[in-house]
Design brief:
Layout: H1 2-10, H2 22-27, H3 30-45, H4 49-54, H5 67-70, E1 86-89, H6 94-109, E2 117-120, H7 125-137, H8 140-145, H9 147-179, H10 183-191, H11 194-208, H12 211-235, E3 241-244, H13 250-262, E4 266-269, E5 272-276, E6 286-290, H14 298-313, E7 318-321, H15 327-340, H16 342-345, E8 348-351, H17 359-363, H18 370-381, H19 388-391, H20 398-412, H21 423-433, H22 435-445, H23 449-466, H24 477-497
Helix pairs in contact: 7-9, 7-11, 9-10, 13-14, 20-23, 20-24, 21-23, 21-24, 22-23, 23-24
């Protein structure tokens, strides 16, 4: 830092550098500009340092000139930085996996210690329903041939049979609410027979340690984890911990229940234990902790799991990556935890994504994650039948970014480095300087869109630099230095997004066509 201050002093800048941490200056050189700009803002406006710092933002348009970088626009509000503990729930499988992996890499890049956890829904009523289905439709021969595929088929069949009962229970509940009657009592008549009774009975046996049900659960868990590990390996995604609802200790759940009772948060209703969320200032209905059969509900297991993870990891932030159709669950859980331990509740964050997708209409129900890749390969194999214009690599896309990264790497060869000056190349250099800002913005928002948009600007500017009407582009030593910087930024960004540079693909795929 002393050498840096000496260099700045030689340029006529006042030293020491005002209000900038050493780590921030070294990780993001643009913070040096901010430090001096902050001083100017406080002098001319009379505001405090914090207000001046929050008002500074990087520009989106490099056409405003060099000062657009160091004299950015004002931003009225800024989000505080957060620390990371990454929890990935399979929610909507592929999307939650990809988003969670991005967040993990993002927090890694910002210097945080990240634990990647895959929380399996391997307990409770979904497993109990699968067991009921197995009793009716299970086949050892089909299981041996394709374990996960057969389990999906069994679950799909029993779920179809169960849906009319679920619809009747929901209708009874809605009618009771309209008429001001107890909704639990209204549902009890329907849920005391049929598949409801079979499922609830199996769920209770599972919790009580019944040998037959637990052997079935163990087989299911083993084959499902193996299948997902293979799927994640294909995606290049790793987890530090595979845990599940089944591993939540009964003692911790009892501890949570006792805390809820001691604080008069939970109450008994028609044999079940629940929380009236309106008493906690929320409109999230009634949260069931234990059902009338005595089985623990997912909410109770999740509450207990938070406490266990807090004790195990002492995390600063725990992020759930789960589809938006689980929003009510997380609203209930966070609100209940807030009443029990606000400091812990403030460390939790739900990153949700839209459940709307055309994948179900395309693939149908009951498919393994690997089936998605099979469909992608089928689509790629038929590219010769596709309109060339529609298949062209244009616009803001992953293939364009990877192709340009390959082009830049190829163009570098063995060039020497020296100073560059041309307009197109200077504009590219200014865009590259914004990369730390883009990553920091993504870190604050937990969104990938800013990085994707940024790479569109990079690829467009690289294309301008490599587009010579008169013939082959001359790779001077100065241009080589710029291409090397571009290659580094592209590689770092692709790593964050989970894309592998073309030059790092397996040798057998080296003939894959790329855009030049």
């Amino acid at each position: 830092m002393d050498v840096l201050e000496q260099t700045l002093a030689a340029l006529g800048l006042e030293t020491p550098i005002p209000n900038v941490e050493v780590s921030k200056a070294l990780a993001n050189p643009l913070n040096l500009y901010r430090a001096y700009l902050e001083r100017v803002l406080t002098e001319i406006s009379g505001c405090d340092h914090e207000t001046a710092t929050k008002s500074i933002q990087w520009p989106n348009n490099i056409d405003n000139g060099d000062l657009s970088i160091v004299l950015p626009k004002l931003r009225p509000r800024a989000k505080a930085q957060e620390v990371a503990f990454e929890l990935m729930d399979k929610g909507k499988h592929l999307r939650s996996t990809i988003i969670g992996a991005f967040l993990a890499r993002l927090y890694d890049s910002m210097g945080w210690a990240v634990t990647r956890m895959n929380f399996l829904g391997d307990w409770g009523k979904p497993i109990a329903l699968l067991y009921v289905g197995w009793q009716r439709f299970g086949s050892e021969a089909a299981f041996e041939a394709d374990a996960v595929g057969h389990l999906l088929d069994v679950y799909h069949k029993i779920d179809e049979l169960f849906q009319p009962e679920q619809a009747a229970s929901k209708q009874a509940r809605d009618e009771a609410v309209k008429e001001g009657r107890d909704e639990s009592e209204a549902q009890q008549e329907i849920e005391s027979k049929g598949i409801f009774t079979e499922r609830n009975g199996a769920s209770k046996k599972l919790e009580d340690g019944d040998d037959e049900v637990n052997r079935f659960w163990s087989r299911v868990r083993e084959v499902v984890i193996a299948d997902y590990q293979s799927f994640y390996d294909t995606l290049g995604i790793r987890f530090d911990d595979y845990s599940g609802e089944s591993e939540v200790r009964a003692e911790t759940m009892a501890e949570v229940e006792q805390m809820l009772k001691d604080k008069n948060i939970s109450e008994e209703s028609a044999g079940a234990w629940m929380v009236d969320m309106t008493k906690l200032g929320s409109k999230a209905g009634h949260a069931i902790i234990r059902d009338r059969s005595g089985s623990s509900m997912y909410l109770l297991r999740d509450l207990a799991a938070v406490i266990e993870r807090s004790r195990k990891y002492s995390f600063d932030k725990m992020i759930y990556v789960v589809a938006s159709d689980n929003s009510v669950h997380f609203t209930q859980m966070f609100k209940i935890l807030e009443a029990l331990d606000k400091e812990l509740a403030d460390k939790l964050h739900h990153v949700k994504f839209s459940e709307v997708s055309k994948m179900g209409a395309t693939l149908g129900k009951g498919y393994k994650p690997s089936f998605i890749f099979d469909k992608c390969e089928e689509a790629m194999s038929s590219l010769s039948e596709v309109d060339a214009d529609k298949a062209a690599l244009m616009g803001r896309s992953g293939p364009i970014t990877r192709a340009l990264g390959h082009t830049v790497t190829t163009a570098l060869s063995d060039q020497e480095f020296e100073v560059l000056a041309e307009d197109d190349k200077a504009n590219l250099l200014r865009i590259l300087a914004q990369y730390p800002e883009v990553v920091n913005a993504a870190f604050n928002s937990l969104e990938t869109s800013g990085i994707v948009t940024y790479f569109a600007s990079v690829t467009e500017q690289v294309s301008d630099c490599l587009d010579e009407e008169d013939g082959e582009v001359a790779i001077t030593s100065g241009f080589a230095a710029l291409l090397e910087a571009t290659r580094i930024v592209l590689k770092n960004g692709m790593t964050l997004l989970g894309l592998k540079p073309v030059t790092e693909l397996p040798q057998e795929r080296a003939d894959t066509p790329v855009a030049g």
